[in-house]
Write a structure and sequence with these properties.
108 residues, alpha/beta, Oxidized Rhodanese, domain 1, 39% helix
Length: 108
């Protein structure tokens, strides 16, 4: 029971659903906004080409930088926890096409 409970917590923290690296690449090549929600120092040490950096802690204040609320957005971080949190923030603010890649390593 404890293992199932821990798995459910991790599942919820990661946003329940993530997209694959291939799906993310297709979305970005079709014009989706790619956002790295890690800290600026993490971003400066390496990021996916074409990504903009808006840390999850600044996201609510920088909604205008995200763009059109109906446009596709792809989020990522280091492990998937912060991008899941960012997805919830954007959806709460009315963004309707938010996709969570999870961790940056999934880009492949």
């Amino acid at each position: 029971m404890l293992i199932v409970g821990a798995g459910l917590i991790i599942y919820r923290l990661r946003g329940a659903s993530t997209i694959t690296g291939e799906q993310a690449k297709r979305l970005v090549s079709s014009g989706a906004t790619l956002i790295d929600v890690r800290t600026p120092s993490e971003f400066s040490s390496g990021h996916i080409d074409g990504a903009m950096n808006i840390s999850v802690d600044q996201l609510a204040e920088r909604l205008a930088d995200v763009g059109d609320r109906s446009g596709a957005v792809v989020l990522y971080c280091a492990s998937g926890a912060r991008s899941a949190r960012a997805k919830r923030i954007l959806e709460r603010e009315g963004f309707s096409n938010v996709n969570n890649l999870g961790g940056m390593s999934r880009w492949g």
